[in-house]
Amino acid sequence: MDKTTATYVLLNWTAVFFYVVATVVNVSGVVFKKETLEQRSYWLIGIGMLFHSAATAIWWRAVGHGPYMAPSEVLSSNAWIALATFFVFQRLYPRVSPASIFVFPSAFLMLALANFYNPGIRSLPPTFASVWLVFHIAFYKIALATLIIAFAFSVFHLMKGRSQAVWLEKLPEPVSIDLYAYRFAGFGFIFWAIGMLAGSIWAYKSWGRFWGWDSVETWSLITWLSFGIYLHLRRFFGWRGDRAAWFFIGCFLLSLVSIFVTSHLGGSIHAEYFK
Amino acid sequence: MNFLKRIRQFLLSRATILTLIVLASGSMLLGSFIPQSFLLTPKGLMQWHADYPVISVVAGRLGLQHIYTHPIFAVIILLASGSLLLSCIEQCKKAWRRTCGEDSSGGADAAFTTTADPESVTLWLRQRGYRIVASGAFGVRLCRQPWGYWGNALLHVGMLVVIISSLWIALTQQRGKLHLAVRESFRPGEQWLSTEKGLLAKDPALDSPVRLESVSYEFWPTYGVKNVASRLTFQGRQNESEPAVVEVNRILYRHGMSIYQTVDFGHAFYVEVTDPVGTKKTYQLLLTHPEKPDTPSYGDYPDMLGPGILLRAKYLVDPEKGSFARGIPRLVLRMEVNGTSLGQLPLAAGTEETLGRFRFRLIKIDLWSGLIFVKFYGIQGVFFGFLIIIIGSSLNYFTPPRDVLVGAAANGKTVVSWRASKFKELYLDEFDRLDEQFNPEKTHG
To answer: Closest to B222 (Cβ–Cβ): which among A121, A126, A212?
Structure first.
């Protein structure tokens, strides 16, 4: 292992360490209703993100392209963007804070998983050298982050209706939780659409077709339409509460399949990432 | 009239819309499990038929291998487009009424009466981002982020624009693929390597000959391809030469046609073959550039020299397997007759050897590259439609409008009613602040 790779791996594991500690502290803070612990977990995540950012920057410089080619790069950037998006929305909507108990573990799991892949240097195929590819990937990652938050609120809603646990009292009222799930699903729907748009512009610039019914494209459209169905059911059919939460969880699982599974299928241009 | 009204009601019904979305998604889901014929090579398709004989029979009978050109899918898209069109009209009318008229999105979510006069309430609200959108005998209607009412309308207009533009492209597009070797020309009317065309389109056609002058390419230190570019010459109408360069991600536009450089390139081997009766014929073997210096690239040519004869070719850019820099490729031919190997033959440029009953002479080696010629209109509509979808959904979820109606009550007081078009629980604090401002006794009492 060369020096750059060793530094990259070491920094990433250090970030994982801070994320794990932050998750433990954060969950304790939320469950035992200790505001100070919750606040401290944000600091720990912040320190972890510094190591994570340094690792990403070093690797970016070494490989000459952004973190979107090798599986380790993809998962690592997913984790970073999930945390960054969470903090942006947390500043805008402070009541989103409890979603951290889903966002933080997701981040450390993604980064830890990234570290198990060989971080070999992948050269950028010529068709991938496009700014539209960067937008395409970045917006799917932001969409994933907002969907994790919506997923957290859907789960909170289901838990609140089923459990008398004291820590659940700290969460907003079920109606507000339900609305946050709805709203963040809407944000996910928007960012997913932007990701698809950027992808179609990239494909047009590179191959002269904006849509090719590639398996990843098809599943991405199906996922987007399923979120469209969810939003329609809520808006026009009055779906709310548990029923809507279960439906969203189904859509969320579908989005995970679209992002993490279909890109491994052969015969897809997107499979280039994971070769 | 009644019939038309019923059709309109049917297309605007929420159940119809939901059913159409589910049907479209279901078709796509099916299309992702059943391999689509246009995405597979004939060989791949045959393999699938062999692997799944029962499913392939059912899929063949039901036309599931061309789901996106299936009449049922066309009907779903047609109904969805009709529904979207009517929905767009309705949504635009509704948005207009809500933005500029008395009509808010319904009754009030919260209300109070105050002794303050309507003007001071209105002024206070205006200072906090509410705009007057209508006034009259009913009072004054103020709205915060009234453009949010256009979110749904724009979302639906955008989807309609994307569907119509995509259909137009699907019906009218022309697409031809070529593999050209250096100094080789392609003339109008000649056979393309492969073509795709819409139902209403003719075969793609060039308006003048094109010649490949040179191919250049670069590699990353890890041997991945960094860039490929082709220098072309078009023959103009007055026989003048028009040079042009096309490279990956840099589209060349010419006379309404977009020309793309593909990442396919390699060496073209011109092999003269003398058959057992002494007839000479020159074949052009286009082999893809190897991925690594120590890994050969292969090509199979079944039945090219006669039935049952398989000619297999492989080459390395550098016979020493050291790098891609030393460009003296070595071609190796191998012949199989009815599955039995007759041996193999290394050939350098200018050399001549015998294999089986054939003599092979490598005349010359050149570079080749892949080009795609595309002609279609409507792509701007697709991207513009996407943009409208994004603006519409952003207005919808980022800027939900909040309405306040300020009117006079019978007892001389002022009635203030508040409503959020969406997510009201998340904005109720705006109402609370308003209530607190004009009803301090209630708040503190």
So the answer is: A121
